[in-house]
Design a protein that fits this description.
9 helices; alpha/beta; Alpha-Beta Plaits; seven-stranded mixed sheet; globular; Rossmann fold
Length: about 325
């Protein structure tokens, strides 16, 4: 099968926005190549030692989002629309730099692109105990390691992004043995799986994207956690009527603001709402929404331009 690859130069902050835009237009998949994922590795938690020292040598200086469009006769229309949508972003005030947004296209044979990203994805330690191990990589566990086998497929959620790693650090703090957890917008299922590895008794992983639910289900099986983690197709918390001790959402600030009220109805007494995907420019909006919904922030983390918050409902 023939494909058209569109490569867009952007920034770490812009990669997710560009990826979502290209997928909306009709890309069959995206690959993000970002040096920051390696350079920002936290040496204190041991992640740096797991990274191949030669990885950086072949990575571009700019963050590059590569989108793949099937050569089905409509690819020219899709790539033209993508260029127009990307050009329109230059005039918008988004609160962060999108980089050059230079876009190039080239034909690609077969479907090797689906696995190209795997060469950048290596085992990594997050927090003090969780180790994210790609299913195709070898890793010798150390004492007290909680190894999470992960194949993100075409779903978001590898653990390399600051928002994901901060959420896992928060889960290490707030997950207690046997507690109930809900992961809203689960992607690959990484946060629900991490919660289970940390001792949660049950976890529900919810996503509106059916592909994400499929990938999360496969990762549940990889980790033999089907007795404690369930992947569910649904729109935020609309199909969820149970309560939880911990609810985690790594989405975007605007959605988190909307979620504050529904989450308050699903939290058990003294439950914790962990949230990320919040750029610093949007933190005040989230804090206002939390305040109006009756929460008090009890923990805050930040990495780069991103913030992660944990909050409890006021007594």
């Amino acid at each position: 099968m023939k494909w058209i690859q569109m490569s867009v130069e952007t920034t770490t902050m812009g990669a997710e926005l560009i990826s979502e835009l290209l997928m909306e237009i009709g890309a069959s998949g995206v690959e993000i190549v970002d040096r920051y994922d390696v350079l920002s590795a936290d040496k204190r938690d041991g992640m740096w030692d797991m990274i191949d020292e030669h990885v950086l040598e072949n990575m571009p200086e700019a963050t590059v989002v590569k989108a793949f469009f099937e050569a089905d006769g409509n690819e020219a229309e899709k790539t033209s629309l993508a260029r127009a949508r990307i050009a329109a972003l230059r005039g918008q005030e988004l609160g962060f730099d999108l980089g050059s947004l230079k876009a190039e296209t080239q034909p690609v044979q077969d479907e090797d692109w689906k696995d190209n990203w795997k060469k950048w994805y290596k085992p990594m330690r997050i927090g003090s105990r969780i180790v994210i191990k790609p299913t195709w990589e070898d890793y010798e566990p150390q004492a007290d390691d909680l190894v999470l086998e992960l194949d993100p497929g075409m779903a978001f959620g590898t653990g390399t992004h600051e928002t994901t790693s901060m959420c896992i650090t928060m889960l290490e703090k707030f997950i207690t043995p046997g507690c109930q957890c809900i992961d809203v917008g689960c992607g690959s299922g990484i946060l629900a799986l991490a919660a289970a590895k940390l001792g949660a008794g049950s976890c529900v992983a919810i996503d509106l994207d059916e592909l994400a639910v499929k990938v999360a289900g496969e990762n549940i099986l990889h980790n033999h956690l089907e007795d404690r983690v369930t992947a569910v197709h649904g729109d935020l918390l609309e199909q969820c009527d149970q309560k939880a001790d911990v609810i985690v959402a790594n989405i975007i600030a605007d959605v988190i603001c909307y979620l504050c009220r529904p989450v308050s109805e699903r939290l058990k007494d003294d439950g914790v709402f962990i949230m990320s995907g919040i750029i610093k420019e949007k933190e005040e909006d989230v804090l206002n929404a939390l305040n109006h919904a009756g929460y008090t922030v009890c923990e805050r983390l930040s990495k780069g331009e991103w913030v992660c918050l944990a909050a409890r409902l006021n007594a």
